[in-house]
Amino acid sequence: MKMGTKLTFAFLSVALMIAMEGFYEISVSEAALEASIGEQSAIRARQLMNKIDETIYTRIEQIHAYVYKLPNNPHFVRALNDFDTIDNKDAYIAERDKAWQSAERDVITPFMAELIDRPLSQALRSDLEQKEFFRRTRGHDVFSEVILTNSYGANVAQTQKTSDFYQADETWWQEAKRLGLYIEDVEYDKSADVYSTNICIRINDQQGRFLGVMKVVVNIEDVIRTLRIEDETDPVRFNLITADQRVIYSTVGYPVLEPLPEAHRIEPDMEHNAHRAEYLIVEGQSENEEAVLRACASSRGFRDFKGKGWT
Are 65 and 199 spatial neighbours (Cβ–Cβ below 8 Å)? Predict the structure, then answer.
């Protein structure tokens, strides 16, 4: 091999090594940057999920404090005593419930009006719902509806018309009686006309005897307010979903309670590890489609609230 050829080959070898080293350094820098952004995004997802859990816990505590005082509330005691004077309670409940459900949706019968307007119902509106205050400070209702039942499952107070009078055949009533606290997943509440997560709490007297159940319809707007505030200040996209991957809130505009589209579903590995904050890079499906970084964190609850498995 001629000397010139050897020198050229040596020069090219050195140039190739330098180029490869430079490429390696760029790749390492890109990977480090990607990891840094991913980790920060995952931490942010965890922080947002924690805020949502804390919001729900705060509402639970607020309702618990109200329920704790009910056995000493003279209006509640009077409502229970009045019901105890009824001879055939089962027949009374069946008759009232049948008439209740047969009424037209927009009709409030005299018996419904009596329950809605009684002092105990007025106290629920003024002391717990506080619609005027929350609409002024938050722009929406927080507690959209409250139902108060006795130990037979019959309504003894309510803040507006409900779908039925008898509640003891409902899962939420039975679970609240059994567990003390039952929180329903997101659903559309027909009577309150809102998407809500309902907090249901057993009412006991000071001796621990069962007196009834209170159900509070918590407007989902109160829970997702944290995400709405983030959305206003940052172009990051959010999807808050239930444990079975139905949409609670989406900045992309997916319909509430519809299944999250397949392309945006959480991958099994992420779903399994979502009690930690996780992220991954999803490559584009074509040359013109950019890669997307996804970070996720699932609800792990707060204090006594165990979470609902939202992600």
Answer: no
Distance CA 264, CA 46 (A): 19
Number of helices followed by number of strands (H, E) in the chain:
9, 10
Answer for the pair 99, 107: CB distance below 8 angstroms, yes or no. Answer: no
Q: Contact 198/215 with Cβ under 8 angstroms?
A: yes
From residue 292, alpha-carbon distances to 2, 84, 247, 284 in Å are 52, 63, 20, 7
- Cβ atoms 241, 310 nearer than 8 A: yes
Percent helix, strand, coil in the chain, to 5, is 50, 20, 30
Mean pLDDT to the nearest integer, 103-112 = 90
β-strand pairing of 278-282 with 155-158: unpaired
- Cα gap 56→40, rounded to integer Å: 25
Measure the CA–CA gap between 204 and 224, rounded to whole angstroms: 32
Q: What is the pLDDT of residues 236-276, one digit of tens each?
A: 788 899 988 899 998 888 899 999 887 667 665 555 554 55
pTM: 0.82
183-232: per-residue pLDDT in tens? 999 999 887 788 999 999 999 999 999 999 999 999 998 888 878 777 66
